[in-house]
Amino acid sequence: MVTRLAVREESTMHDHRKLGRELELFGSDPLLGAGLPYWLPDGAIVRHSLEEYVRDVERRAGYRHVHSPVLGKRELYELSGHWSHYRDDMFPPMDLGGEQVVLRPSLCPHHALIYRSRGRSYRELPLRLAELGGMYRAELSGVLGGLSRVRAIQLNDAHVFCTLDQVEDEAAAALALIRRAYDALGIQPARYRLSLAGDSGKYVGDAGKWLRAADILRSVLDRAGLAYDAVEGEAAFYGPKIDVQVVDSAGRESTLSTVQVDFHQPEQFALEYVGADGAKHRPVMVHRSIIGSIERAMAQLIEVHGGAFPAWLAPVQLRLLPVSDAELPYANRIRHDDLRIEVVDASRGSLGARIRDGRLAPYQAVIGPREVSSGGLSVRLRDGSQLDARPVDDVLAWLADEIRKPLRPANPASGPGFPEPPSR
């Protein structure tokens, strides 16, 4: 397990708020308001790549994607329990046509309504519904900071509706997706936490079901062979959860990903399915988020990598550096549909300065008269090592394949042959 101190030492030099602005990834403006950052073009590329990755992982895992509105009637959140247990963190209701509507603080009530939009059979379960959706928290100005704590959140959320016999396997599969995503992102959890109910009155539901849910999550963690801390008083108001904790550059710990078992909301929304016996039964909800909010995930990525993102996330994946204007037409013709390529010409400084400026890019290639005459390309890696020159089309195909490697399912077919690069 990576200790909090180790994570803090690794990321001491990378405050995402400072670096994110220096790299022109995101910004803010007083006219938008505190806790409402905007995304600049390079930041939007990283964000979109992250979103596409998560959607693809979910699709391959059997999730079906939905969209739901960011507004809902106050009665919806009264039914779910959010209004009574979470009201202080919600934006005030808006009067609209004799009704009160609010910005949603969570997606789970919306997905419960989607589930109950028609009758369900046990043959459909587990039903996995996923959404990359907006939600809103009325955070106080004093706790807002960069991307880590914001008021408008884009959450990678999903809810699995399943039978009691399926719950443990579904929760275990969700945790496996989280661990796989962290590998692809280059993120190390600070710790795993089993968040349980405490003595406060904020928790709802039957005590026996809470114990059963907690036992299921303990079993999931034990099956995965993960060390964890059991902490009372950190559960959601409706059920216990596994929290995957990360630490920022200042040593502050926060939850990035989560897996929750919920017996309460299916009761509240009277969710049902027809079992093999022809009788009606109550499903269980597994709440899970692979990477949490896009904002907090981006903050963690910036701090962990210092802007040197994994190649599949990098805003520019290959920088082409023509030595002079004579090589510029050749450089401009180098394109590949699956690569983000930028041509950095001599007007932006000396060759040495351009190489230094591109130190965060995963790949760079200097183009001189020899490359133009041979139709070749020699790729320079972040660590300064250089690959042998090969025909341009071969190099581009290899790069596209290399960049996709962390995103492939287990046991992928082998890609095109090309010498393995030096360690980087």
TrEMBL record:
SUPFAM superfamilies in UniProt: Class II aaRS ABD-related (SSF52954), Class II aaRS and biotin synthetases (SSF55681)
EC number: 6.1.1.3
PROSITE patterns, per the entry: AA_TRNA_LIGASE_II
Pfam families, sorted: HGTP_anticodon, tRNA-synt_2b
Domain Aminoacyl-transfer RNA synthetases class-II family profile: from-to ranges: 41-310
Organism domain of life: Bacteria
Family matches, as InterPro entries: aa-tRNA-synt_IIb, aa-tRNA-synth_II, aa-tRNA-synth_II/BPL/LPL, Anticodon-bd, Anticodon-bd_dom_sf, Thr-tRNA-ligase_IIa, ThrRS_core
A Gene Ontology molecular function term of the record: threonine-tRNA ligase activity
Catalytic reaction equation(s): tRNA(Thr) + L-threonine + ATP = L-threonyl-tRNA(Thr) + AMP + diphosphate + H(+)
Keywords for the protein's UniProt record, in alphabetical order: Aminoacyl-tRNA synthetase, ATP-binding, Cytoplasm, Ligase, Metal-binding, Nucleotide-binding, Protein biosynthesis, Zinc
Enzyme class: ligase
Family: Belongs to the class-II aminoacyl-tRNA synthetase family.
Protein name: Threonine--tRNA ligase
